[in-house]
Specification:
Length: 447
Amino acid sequence: MFGRFIFLLPVMLAFSYGARVFASNAELQNDNKDTVQNLESNEDEIEDAVEEHTNVKQFIPTKEWQIIEDGQAIPPGLHVSIDMQTGEKMAKLMEDDDQHEITSHVALATVDNEKDVKEEKYITEQELKMRLKKFKNDAKTQSKEDVDDVKMKFKPYEELKKDFEAINVHIRAEAEIISQLLDKINSSETGENELIASLNDLEYYTHKIDSGKDFSTMGGIPILLSIINGTDSSIEVRQLSARVLASAIQLNPAVQVVALEQGTLSILIHSISRDSSFSVRKSSFTALSSLLRSFPFAQQQFLRNGGLSTLIQLFSLDGYESDELQIKVIILIYDMLVERRLSLSYDSLSNPDRFKQYAAIDLNLRLVRLGWCDSLTSFLKRTRVAQLELDATEKIVLSISELVERCKDEWKPNSSMDRTLRVLQSRLSTNNEYEEEIYNMIENILN
């Protein structure tokens, strides 16, 4: 019996050792498997955390209370308030915080529906590295077509920098060009062709606000006025000079003021009434219109210098060219009447100085005294109203409507104006929306 035990003892020891080795190997395999699962689980958690943090709306704290939305992340160290009745949560900076500091070890407190504030969750350095790696990988996935498309839509920084430098150079260059053009125009050695070319170039530059100001400060206005008022220059040169002047003055208040101070008004009025060429008269009238529009002080000076009577005297002229100029006069006077009416209606509080200037211009009364009502009547009687463009017809009818009350004695029923308007109305079609509008305006005047 004892001998048999002695015999089995080594076998039992060997079996026991083998069992322990097998168990140890199995345990190691299980540990490795758990480790892999843990790593995969941690990686999933990290990705979930990154996705969760990316989708959370950023809360930017200020010194004023702001509502914290459900699931919104807020930085730590804020003053948080919770309404116990509504459950609404609000946060702001502490009173002694000028600027909330966020350290490189960022902490986020997340607000949940079930809990007021979750446990603080930290973004570790490893997580930040993973996010940067993911960002780089995303950037690498862009196709060449995407990159080329972006390059086509947006200029690189260096190219933009060169463009801005070119703009500055261009602005300086324009002022220099204007100065050179004025020198050529003012020189007695400049030939006719070169003078015309210089005036055409100058007209192009002066329509810009800044270039127009440069032109006026360089003494360009007196140079052009001397040409317009002179007799030595050709018709084309005088006409171009008036056009350049109109281009510089138009919609440019600073240049309007300088032009008025330098005697532009009287010279233009003289050119409109006395120049032998209708083309020069029309260009001078365009410059005068640019000077008077939206400039009540210039309108006052215009009336004092007899400008209105000069314009009304133009209606004694006959012919196609004079008709064209007279239509321009009608439109200008209508615009001046509307400007004054609107200013008296709206500027008394918002712009009292402008209100006073327009109130001092009794344009309606002056027009009646100078015979404007009869001038309009005679114009329509001798003008072939059927050949008038619709835009001109509309302006004429609007001008008449502005003065119906002032001219009621001259425009009473069965008067020349009454009959002329009925003829004009009969030629308008009510099937056309634009013509129907003019038709209705005439109907209101007649009634």
